[in-house]
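Standup notes
- DV: blocked on the single-chain target, sequence here:
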Amino acid sequence: MLVYLCMPKPCEEPLTYRLGRIDERFGITRTEFSVAVRKAAAVWGKPLARELFREDPQGAIEINLIYDYRQETSDKLKQLDYKMDGSTDSIQSMKMRYESLKAEHEKKIASLEVELQSYNARINAYNAKVEFWNREGGVPQTQRIQLTSEKNELDSFRESFRMRREEVKSLSDEINTLSAVINEIVANYNQDVDHYRDVGSRLAGEFQEGFFESKDGKQSITIYHFDNGEKLVRLLVHELGHALRLPHSENPQAVMYRLNQYDTAELTADDITALRTRCEK
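- DV (later): unblocked, structure below
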């Protein structure tokens, strides 16, 4: 007698997951990350009114939060009022900003050099007057008033010059930081292209904020970058969607779109259709 084994339908049993490595440099606790994952899991379960994911210490899917150049770069860019969106356009924007700042820096440096020459000439003239009157036995009252006024002007100019020199230094620091960030992105991006080409998951022109991998009988979700808590949840929803074997959507507003462009973690009609198609096979 033959015994036929019935394979469970997709989504019939919850997929189990467990938390893996949570890098503290993200500034998020293990508990907070667990809450974010549960929120993301609930998003997929809502349309079908069933539990699609369940946290389990022995869960099949390991979810990690790995800090690397992506988040480090984003943190640096925040200091420069930049926001990384994961596209080559953002890198091009940074390069344009770099060239603009560089031109501004060169212009200010040239201006400071001219002003410094003028200041030094005035200082030399002032010192020559003081030396002359000292040789004459003292400064007359009328000249004393004039020299005092000149000295005050020179002191005021020196303080103003010092402040503007500090501004140029800050501008120089920003340029150096931006240059380092651009180089870091490009270098690491090129490395990532090679890595993700090997596993067939790399999308040209983008870096991965998160990544679902199923290889050698092991499943994992790795989060590399997020701007805020809402973005994290949406990104987790996206990667959990891949765990459900959902493909990317062509709808830019969909959670399953290839780029994580929005803060809200609400499923679009396209997402729900893809989910129902997958789970009702």
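- Follow-up: The mean pLDDT is 81.
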